[in-house]
Design a protein that fits this description.
5-stranded mixed β-sheet; 2 domains; 506 residues; 5 strands; 22 helices; 59% helix; single chain; alpha/beta; globular
Length: 506
């Protein structure tokens, strides 16, 4: 053991047994089963995600996923995605889940649940070289991360993206140590999967490659590492080229923004805090700043201690540097690039893949801790914050909005369901999806077409009109038409986006 490697528990017989074969040539199938604490933590994390996936209605972006995934054939799915701003893999996975498990909200989210299970496994593999406590702590942080809990129970591409990036990171660190056929295959599939899930993956793959090349150069075996990486990386890129050479080019041509939020420096800092503390806005401005400063302080100390201690005893000497690059450098780089390139999007949930390396770094910090109360308190706090996410202000309750209209609808009422959407998406999907689950009347429903509204020119025939909207700009003509039609009686909010307003004819 070098002087830069962690001391204390890592050198014990217990941890030599835990870390196992130092060659790392196989994927240890008993990683979870040997440790009851890890097994319980993983089951808790999956149970929470399954619970949220079953009890929450779809959010606006999930209707986008459902729209593409509901195409009759794979060819139609690809053609539909060409008008979008994402690669097709996540929609194909959701489509497969629908074919196998039905079209319920839970079925659409099964790929995210599977991805969460894979994420826990790869996090455990990344943390194993740092010791048993580090492994337990890292898995617990990911399992109870409020951001990962939110995205790991959502029919979107971010949880699968995180699993692929974490898998690629583990595989790359294995290949740094020497030839490893299992790692080569997993790494190739992971890189291909990441490129097929979201274009933001390019940032993580780029910096993972650069960090590993630097580590190999420092260890004086750059040539051998490049030879080990050439085939799996080349195969992954070759498999992704058919889409990037056709669909991606077509998407660039239609000019649809890449997505993401216009975040300032504060938004970037909050992005880091959101990795584990999604509910930091609870408590008003003071609570927001306290959560922000506390979470950034914790994460910063974790990075400092981890870099000071160095790598785990069975990892490559520079593995901690690679993890730090994935945790800290990628979000800063992507944020900076988005400020100068309008087509490069950035928002806080894009950096979900940074949860895993950040958790491993934090785990390495507590490995040598003399008390376990710190570990227990941190896990308890993460669990509390995760549970609060169930009814957080960011929840979008479309089933509740539809139910309100159903409960108070009167014969002759008109209903308008409209969302702020790109032109490729039809509007009214929240109403269409949830109204069929009950006996709600639909004959009076009118649909509008996102920001390109089909002018409703027959409002006067309805004594009352229900407007169910989501992120609708104040400038659209529909608002003026409704103001001319009648008076607003009452407005109800259903979480972050959807509102329902009742208008009565003058």
């Amino acid at each position: 053991m070098s002087e830069s490697q962690p001391k204390g528990e890592l050198g014990s017989e217990e941890n030599r047994t835990w870390t196992g074969n130092s060659t790392g040539s196989t994927l240890p199938s008993s990683l979870l089963g040997r440790d009851p604490i890890i097994l319980i933590t993983v089951l808790l994390g999956l149970t929470l995600r399954a619970y949220f996936a079953g009890q929450k209605g779809l959010v606006l972006d999930e209707f986008h996923s459902d729209f593409h995934a509901s195409r009759a054939t794979f060819s139609e799915l690809l053609q539909s995605v060409r008008a979008d701003n994402h690669p097709p893999l996540s929609f194909a996975l959701i489509s497969l889940a629908q074919d196998l498990f039905g079209k319920s909200d839970f079925a659409l989210r099964i790929p995210a649940l599977i991805a969460a299970a894979l994420e826990f496994t790869f996090v455990g593999l990344l943390a194993r070289p740092y010791g048993k406590t580090a492994c337990r702590f890292a898995i617990a942080l990911v399992a109870l991360s409020s951001l990962h809990l939110d995205q790991g129970s959502m029919a979107r591409m971010y949880a699968p993206l995180a699993a692929c990036i974490t898998g690629a990171t583990w595989a790359s660190l294995q290949l740094l140590r020497g030839p490893n056929k299992t790692a080569a295959v997993i790494g190739s599939l992971a890189v291909w999967g990441a490129l097929g899930l979201h274009y933001f993956a390019v940032h993580y793959i780029l910096w993972l490659g650069l960090a590993c090349l630097l580590a190999a150069w420092k260890a004086a075996h750059l040539g051998s590492f490049v030879r080990r990486m050439a085939l799996p990386l080349g195969a992954a890129i070759a498999a992704a080229l058919p889409w990037y050479g056709t669909g991606f080019i077509e998407q660039l041509g239609h000019g649809l923004p890449p997505g993401g939020d216009d975040l300032g420096i504060l938004g970037l800092l909050e992005g880091y805090a959101h990795l584990f503390f999604l509910n930091l806005r609870l408590g008003g401005d003071l609570g927001r700043w306290l959560f922000l400063l506390a979470s950034l302080g914790i994460l910063g100390m974790a990075a400092r201690v981890a870099l000071t201690r160095g790598a785990g005893k069975d990892s490559h000497p520079d593995s901690t540097l690679v993890l730090a690059s994935m945790a800290w450098v990628v979000p800063i780089w992507a944020f900076a690039l988005a400020q100068f390139m309008p087509r490069s999007g950035f928002t806080w949930h894009y950096i979900l893949p940074s949860v895993a390396p950040m958790a491993v770094l934090a785990g390495s910090c507590v490995q040598g801790a003399r008390t376990r109360w710190t570990l227990a308190m941190c896990v308890a706090a993460a669990l509390m914050l995760s549970l609060l996410n169930l009814k957080s202000p960011g929840t979008e309750d479309y089933p509740g909005a539809v139910s309100l209209i159903q409960d108070q609808w009167q014969p002759g009422d008109g209903v308008i369901c409209v969302e702020y959407q790109p032109p490729c998406f039809p509007t009214g999907r929240p109403w269409d999806r949830y109204v069929v689950q009950s006996a709600a009347p639909t004959d009076a429903r009118m649909e509008t077409d996102g920001i390109h509204l089909r002018e409703p020119n027959n409002l006067e025939q309805y004594p009352r009109i229900w407007l169910m909207e989501s992120a609708l700009p104040e400038s659209v003509d529909l608002r003026d038409q409704l103001a001319d039609y009648g008076e607003s009686q009452q407005t109800w909010s259903f979480g972050w986006r959807p509102t329902v307003t009742l208008f009565k004819r003058r």
